[in-house]
Amino acid sequence: MSVGWVGLALALAGGMGLGGLYFAGLWWTVRRLPETGHPALVTLASLATRLGGLLAGLWLLTAGEWQRAVAALVGILLARVVVVRVLGPARATPRAA
Q1: 17: Cα within 13 Å, side-chain hemisphere
Q2: Contact, 68 vs 62, CB < 8 A?
Q3: DSSP class of 63
Q4: Per-residue pLDDT tens for 51-75?
Q5: CA distances from 65 to 52, 53, 73 (A)
Q6: pLDDT band at 88, cuts 50/70/90?
Q7: CA dihedral in degrees (15, 65, 57, 73; nearest 10)?
């Protein structure tokens, strides 16, 4: 069965959305770790939540078609680049010398 361009574009856009949520959630978690009393628990809970959402979203996006899966994974990688540029080192808190 052939996958149309519209399906691939939607999978790419959906992958970008999922990746954006995943990596923004990771950024948020890392920023909150110094404030928590149980950093290991927070890290594991965040990982389980982010990974569960990402896998469920991929399952829905791909509909069992490998072409859509590749498009969605490319979208996730593109989202990583965008999130790193938007929330990267320029937004980090300056360290005391």
Answers
A1: 11
A2: yes
A3: T
A4: 999 999 999 999 889 999 999 999 9
A5: 20, 19, 13
A6: confident
A7: -30
Residue in the block written with tokens 């948020």 = 28
Helix (H) / strand (E) containing 92? none
- Residue 80: closest CA among 62, 54, 56, 59: 54
Single-letter amino acid code for the residue at 87: L
DSSP state of 34: G
- pLDDT at position 20 over 50: yes
Residue pair 1/68 in contact by the 8 Å Cβ criterion: no
